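Quick one:
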Amino acid sequence: MTTPNKTPPGADPKQLERTGTVREIGSQAVWSLSSCKPGFGVDQLRDDNLETYWQSDGSQPHLVNIQFRRKTTVKTLCIYADYKSDESYTPSKISVRVGNNFHNLQEIRQLELVEPSGWIHVPLTDNHKKPTRTFMIQIAVLANHQNGRDTHMRQIKIYTPVEESSIGKFPRCTTIDFTMYRSIR
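Output:
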């Protein structure tokens, strides 16, 4: 029997932002969790600190719900997981679902993770690499390593493409100093 390869880490999402092609939009959403231990909730999941984490407290699947106030274009989901620190709390199978609300979520990705250590980049695009437009994203942890019960996720980031506006295609306007012109009456 062969051992599956470990899940390779992706680049730090801040590098994606520095390219100017995407921006993080997690702060525009309302976040909720299926469960959490006190002091290990949404705040820790979104605090930009890789030492903190969300810890679920209940039966699987463990859910992270991300709801936007308006239909939003999303391109990439980044999840930070660390098997060396979290062992049996580390997700091994994740489902990513999108939809208008809880009642019509559709799975668009299912991931099998093998001892991940770092950022996992999940494209939220269709077969033509077109970003998804949605009101809601749900991340479901379906299984953990070593059959662990509760899960840890250290960070989640959501990115939208930065689109070039039509204004940006015109030459920049310069300010005219009108003091050198005489008024005509």
